[in-house]
Amino acid sequence: MSVAVVIPVFDRVEFLPALLRQLSSQSVLPDHVVIVDHGRQSLSLHGDWPFQVEILKRDSSLWFAAATNEGLVHARTGNPRFLMILNDDVRIGCDHWLARMLADRCIDGLPVGESPRIIDMCCGSGTMLAEIIKATRVRFGSSAI
Q: Is this model's pTM higher than 0.85 or not?
């Protein structure tokens, strides 16, 4: 399951390392992080991340929506299954946040009234399975799942 994350950044580079560390500690990792730098400050990023990180430098006249759109267009070239947009100052509170977001999205795709019967675990993540089960229980109000 491939996930690309787009992070537009405008002169708030101090938040970025913490966000990337939090993404790195997720039980399900994104495959690709696209940082769209549309600020006046020069953005440099150091670190060894468990996912591909690309920085797209854009003109500072670009506003949030345009920077985000450019990041999404660029991220889509990798054909990810899921695209996610994060603000640079987001703080992720737990290590299964991304797994839960993906599980909820997968369940949202089910026809109304149908509960999941088959779970495709091609990524092999036990956390993903656990989050799908939890989300299904909440969604369908059943502890028997």
A: no
